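Predict the assembly for these two chains.
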Amino acid sequence: MIAALIFIFILATLLTMRRAKPKMTLIFFFVSLSCATLLFLHHASDELGLSF
Amino acid sequence: MMTKLCGWHRVSFVLLHVYVLGVCGVVLGAFGFQFIGKELPCPLCILQRMAMLLAAAGPMFIINRSSILDSDPKIDLAIGFGMSILAAVLGLWMSGRQVLLHILPGDPGYGGEVLGLHLYSWAFIVFATILLVSGITLVMSRLMVIKTKFERPKVVSQLTFWVLGIVVSTNAISVFAESGTSWVLPDNPTEYKLIQEFKEFLKQRPREIPSKSQKAS
């Protein structure tokens, strides 16, 4: 469900591009990027927590 | 207000569309493996798709800003390719990790192959290309910046926007079907969990509702 939510954030990044100010686009972009990084770290961490 | 593109600006404008549609084509190719080849994507594959679509959001941003009158084209170019570079670095990290997971001799790798390379190896090449193209465009920004402003987005730009939007939406639905109601994706997916959960829900449902004869007794 988290992965689907990140895709929805990416969609929000696209939909806010039509606005005059790019602020919301950048906010959604960085939220998507941060969530994708955290999800990657979650999936890539092993049980010992030594590698990511 | 200018409405016609000329010289390098035209080339740059066309290349931005090719960039977005090219990335969409790569993600649609992965969809082909998923639906035609019946190969469910692993969590790392899904994450690489996210990074690709975020990288495509950069040039899409520049295309959209070309029809906003009070925007600065130089800043838009810098923001757009900055977005692409950040997403491509993340994608290189993800695909690089997956390549390293299967690098030992004798390891069959994960999933099918295209021209002898697995999809994550192709993803690594795509992200490296995105970084290269973004870097070259920023170095040549004097030529590549789109100074022309359009009264409204061009038909081809709108079409590109919708293609990217549909690809992102379809991925969201597909991933939701794969993960079901659990928070994270399974490590080695073998089925669409949402469909299985729905089938189990339908099986359990009649047992929970007492029949008329049970109620009477």
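Chain A touches chain B through 28 residues (CB under 8 Å). The longest helix of chain A spans residues 23-44.
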